[in-house]
Structure formats: C-alpha cells, structure tokens
C-alpha cells in the first residue's frame, strides 16, 4: 500500500492536469484524444496527415500545425503520454517520501521521479524560496538532498544540547583552530579547545540552574543555503524554559562524508526594546 499511494496520487493529479490540457488547446478535444489513442499513418509524402492522404495538405487548411502533433508510444502508460510540464505539475503534489517511493516502482516512474523540475518544485515547497538565483551545479535533486541533510544535522545539534552530552558535542564540531562559538551571553570562543571548554561550562551551568532539567528548543523560520562543501542556516530558537528566544546562525563544512559545525552564533531577540533573559545553552 505504501508503494501504491504515491502512484494513485500522481495518477489522480495527472488526470486533472489532462483535463486542463484539453481545455487549453485551441482545437477539438476529440481530435487530441483520437491522436493519442490511434497512431497516425505515415504517407509517402513523409508528413503525418490527419486525412491519411498524400500531398502534404492537412484537412481544413491546417498546414504546418505542430500544436496537435502527439508522439504516441505503443504500450506506454498514461504518465508517459503526458507532456513534461503536466507530469512535473502532477508530481509536485507528492512529498519527499512519496517521490522516493514512486521512483522504486518501475523504470518509467523512476525517470519521472528523477525529473529536475519535480525536485525544484519540491525544494521551493519544503524550504525557503527567497533565493531565486540558486542554480544547483548537480541538479535540484542533489541540492534538495544536501539541504535536507544539513537541516537534519542542525536539528541533531539541539538534541545534543538537550542531552548535555559533551562527547557528542566534541564530535559534532570540526577539530580546527578557526572554529568559533558565540553563546547568547555574548562571549566569543575561538579555537576547538576553547569552544569545547565553553560547552562544558554551559552544560554544567545548565545542571545547576535547571536542576538537571533537559532544555529543548523549537526551531522556526529555518533558512538554509548550501554551496559545495559549506552550508549556513539562520533561524529562531525558542527554548522550553523561561529564557530566549534567540536569533541563531550556524555554519557547517563538509569533510569526509560528514557535515561539521565550524561556527555558532546565538543572540537574544529583543522583546519590547529589551532582550529577554539569556540562557547560556543558546
């Protein structure tokens, strides 16, 4: 059933789009249906005349009308008969999981699900649309996957904060001297060792202030940009304790198949002209 669901959704959307296509053409819809269902006969003149006779003339004086020419593939599915624009629009109704499942059904659906236009539409639906100048070098499918991976890594960062796990935090950051961390207290820590010491202090401070209570965050207005081996995110973080919220910027670098944090900057959001009580865990 999981594999059939995206097919049924895409087929339903394709049917609606087909009806819209019939309305859009400036000819008799019955002729369009006829040309799709019955392959046109080639004549000696080399043209595909709708009257089936030579001479290169079309009925009712339709000379050179290419708008109604439809290439028909014998045994092709309904999805394969649709023009690419309609197929892309139909697939835009699917989410990430359904599009991936659709690609595993057969070769025709795999080609349709890997269409770059479908992944561009999905990216604009799931992520920020403010960067209209993005032109992914490896296509929209790869760019969508990279953006999704970075956002998932960023969510893991706040899971580590909630668990107050210094070992996980030490593996999360890139071990380099140029990494930097600015906590919501305003203090800047530069270099890997100094950054780790700051998180050890933050986790101990959290233990004393909250009595060991785990601090969770809700992330809103997440905006990501991925450029080759570097990515940055801006968002608002709302802790589930009496502190914050914060404006946050996180920067990541891609090394050996993994994204590592190289910069974290958190600052309190001004509320009524004054910052809220800060939380060092920010």
UniProtKB/TrEMBL annotation:
- Residue ranges annotated for the SnoaL-like domain, each copy included: 150-269
Locate the F-box domain: which residues?
A: 84-124
**Signal peptide span per the entry?**
none
Q: What Pfam families is this protein classified in?
A: F-box-like, SnoaL_3
Q: What is the name of this protein?
A: F-box domain-containing protein
């Amino acid at each position: 059933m999981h594999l059939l669901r995206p097919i049924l959704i895409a087929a339903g959307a394709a049917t609606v789009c087909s009806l819209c296509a019939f309305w859009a053409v400036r000819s008799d819809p019955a002729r369009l249906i006829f040309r799709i269902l019955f392959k046109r006969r080639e004549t000696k003149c080399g043209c595909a005349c709708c009257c089936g006779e030579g001479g290169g003339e079309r009925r009712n004086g339709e000379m050179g009308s290419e708008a109604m020419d439809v290439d028909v593939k014998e045994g092709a599915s309904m999805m394969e008969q649709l023009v690419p624009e309609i197929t892309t629009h139909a697939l835009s109704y699917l989410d990430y999981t359904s599009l991936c499942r659709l690609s595993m059904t057969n070769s025709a659906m795999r080609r349709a699900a890997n269409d770059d236009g479908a992944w561009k539409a999905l990216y604009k639906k799931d992520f920020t649309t403010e960067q209209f100048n993005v032109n992914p070098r490896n296509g929209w499918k790869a760019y969508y996957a990279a953006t999704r991976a970075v956002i998932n890594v960023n969510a893991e960062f706040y899971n580590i904060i909630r668990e107050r796990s210094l070992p996980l935090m030490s593996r999360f950051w890139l071990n380099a001297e140029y990494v930097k961390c600015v906590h919501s207290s305003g203090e800047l820590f530069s270099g890997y060792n100094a950054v780790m010491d700051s998180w050890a202090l933050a986790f101990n401070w959290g233990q004393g202030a909250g009595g060991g209570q785990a601090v969770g965050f809700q992330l809103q207005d997440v905006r990501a940009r991925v450029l080759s081996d570097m990515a940055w995110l801006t968002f608002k973080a709302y802790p589930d304790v009496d502190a914050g919220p914060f404006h946050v910027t996180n920067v990541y670098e891609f090394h050996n198949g993994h994204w590592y944090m190289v910069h974290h900057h958190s600052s309190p959001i001004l509320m009524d002209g004054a910052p809220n009580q800060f939380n060092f865990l920010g």
